[in-house]
Structure formats: C-alpha cells, structure tokens
Specification:
53% of the residues lie in helices and 15% in strands. By secondary structure, the protein is α/β, with parallel strands linked by helices. It has a single domain, classed as Sugar-phosphate isomerase, RpiB/LacA/LacB (Ribose 5-phosphate Isomerase B, Chain: A, 3-Layer(aba) Sandwich). Strands 2-1-3-5-4 form a 5-stranded parallel β-sheet, with helices on both faces. Strand 1, helix 1 and strand 2 form a beta-alpha-beta unit. The longest helix has 23 residues. The N and C termini lie far apart (37 Å).
Length: 155
C-alpha cells in the first residue's frame, strides 16, 4: 500500500514512530511534512494528504496533530474523505471495516508510541466489510454529493 503521512509540530515525534511501523510492514509512504518541530499550520498538511488520497496518489492517509481533532476536521472537508480520529485499535479497525475510513487521525499528545503503533497497525490491516455497511457509506456519499452540488449551484 502507498500511504500519505503528515503531521504538525505537535505530532512530529509520533509521525516519525509511525513511519518506522510503515517500513516494518512493507508499505510505501510519502511524508508531506512537517519535517521538524518548528510551528506549522496543520490545515496545509491535512489538505495535502486528503487530496492525495482522493486523487489516488495514496491508498490511505495518516495525519497526526496534538489531539488529532484539527487534522480530522480539515481532512473531512475534502469530498470523499472519511477521516477517523482513533485512540485505540478497536475503533481503528471498526473505522475501516464499517465506515470505509480512508484517513487515520492520531493525537500526538494523547497516545504513546506503542499504542499509536497498535492503532495504526489495526487501521492498516483492516478492510471494509461492505454488506450492510455499504448502504451507510453510500448515504455519506449522497450527503456529500448534495452538499457539494448545493455549493456549485450557488457559485
């Protein structure tokens, strides 16, 4: 799998840890930043990864900021992105299996490296189950189509 990964300064250390996991699991990845602990604006990083997932450049995305909340808000503004803020392996697995989440968001202030690696591994190893969940994800897509269609009509 090809993964787009990014963080702000608060998530930098955890991002470096997760990159090690990606290498261990044999995944390709592109680190879109940040590249040190200097202050950056998380929306820039989140948008870059989310657009990469939507364009097919990446199969999945991983975003890390202090709490994971800001990254998830921004990523979910991109049509087709289903970003999930996960703090344990169970919710990470269910985000993929039931919600077809395509971006994992993590909180660098909230997770130690060991737990974060377990969360990321669960997310990466899970697969969308389809079935009854397909109908629900379809409804999410319909809401996006309606909202984005409304914006286009007004513009």
């Amino acid at each position: 799998m090809r993964i787009g990964i990014g963080s702000d300064h608060a998530g930098f250390d955890l991002k470096e840890e997760i990159k090690g996991l990606l290498e261990e699991l044999g995944h390709e990845y592109e680190d879109v930043g940040c590249f040190d602990k200097g202050s950056v604006d998380y929306p820039d990083i989140a948008y870059t990864v989310a657009k990469g997932v939507m364009s097919g450049e990446y199969d999945l995305g991983i975003l890390i900021c202090g709490t994971g909340i800001g990254m998830s808000i921004v990523a979910n503004k991109v049509k087709g992105i289903r970003a999930a803020l996960c703090l344990d392996p169970f919710t990470a697995r269910k985000a993929r299996e039931h919600n077809d989440a395509n971006v994992l968001c993590l909180g660098g202030w909230l997770l130690g490296s060991r737990l974060a690696r377990e969360v990321a591994r669960a997310f990466l190893e899970a697969e969308f189950q389809g079935g009854r969940h397909e109908r629900r994800v379809g409804k999410i897509k319909a809401i996006e189509d309606e909202e984005f269609g409304t914006l286009k009509k007004k513009g």
